[in-house]
Recover the amino acids of this structure.
């Protein structure tokens, strides 16, 4: 059998085996190189600017979210305030008094009149318990009478006005009741013993 002829390449590998390996390793595979470049570009694309990366967009979204939350809260508060004021306030009449008149003045506004022979102090106390505040009105003090001495039994007593106010100022919703207690007088300014109570009610209707 004849021997394999020697070629320059075989001679190179035999003489410089280590250098041959380095030579082959110095040229990476072409497919791997392309994949590496694509991965690098893809990473740069993923790391690029996004819509939510803008501080202005984030701030705008935060403001919109806050406005929506505030709108829901205010809307709920308005609905609650409105629904609780769409009926007139209930005022209990003094036992024994008769309703002499009722008038529907306007939408969400009526007027009741009650009359009877009762004690002024008891009548006033009855309505004071239901109202927020009551005030007495007097005419000019009698001769020699001090203003601090004036009572509901004084001859110059004119009337008592009481107010129960459930209006909502923020939303502009009105609901109140005003009670006026007034004794009847003769032409000679003497009391007849009859007392009239007027109840005016205003509400959202």
């Amino acid at each position: 059998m004849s021997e394999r002829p020697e070629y320059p390449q075989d001679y190179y590998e035999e003489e410089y085996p280590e250098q041959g390996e380095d030579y082959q390793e110095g040229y990476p595979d072409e497919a791997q190189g392309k994949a590496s470049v694509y991965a690098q570009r893809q990473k740069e694309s993923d790391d690029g600017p996004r819509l939510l990366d803008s501080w202005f967009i984030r701030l705008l979204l935060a403001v919109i979210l806050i406005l929506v939350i505030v709108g829901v809260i205010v809307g709920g508060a308005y609905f609650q305030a409105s629904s609780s004021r769409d009926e007139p306030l209930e005022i209990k009449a003094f036992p024994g008094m008769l309703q002499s008149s009722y008038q529907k003045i306007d939408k969400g506004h009526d007027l009741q009149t009650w009359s009877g022979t009762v004690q002024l102090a008891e009548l006033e106390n009855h309505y004071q318990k239901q109202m927020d505040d009551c005030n007495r009105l007097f005419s000019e003090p009698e001769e020699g009478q001090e203003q601090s001495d004036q009572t509901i039994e004084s001859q110059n007593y004119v009337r008592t006005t009481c107010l129960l106010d459930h209006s909502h100022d923020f939303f502009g919703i009105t609901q109140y009741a005003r009670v006026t207690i007034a004794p009847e007088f003769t032409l000679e300014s003497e009391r007849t013993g009859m007392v009239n109570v007027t109840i005016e009610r205003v509400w959202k209707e």
About this structure: Residues 20-27 have pLDDT under 50 and may be disordered. DSSP finds five helices and six strands in the chain. The first strand starts at residue 98 and ends at 106. The CA atoms of residues 157 and 198 lie 17 Å apart.
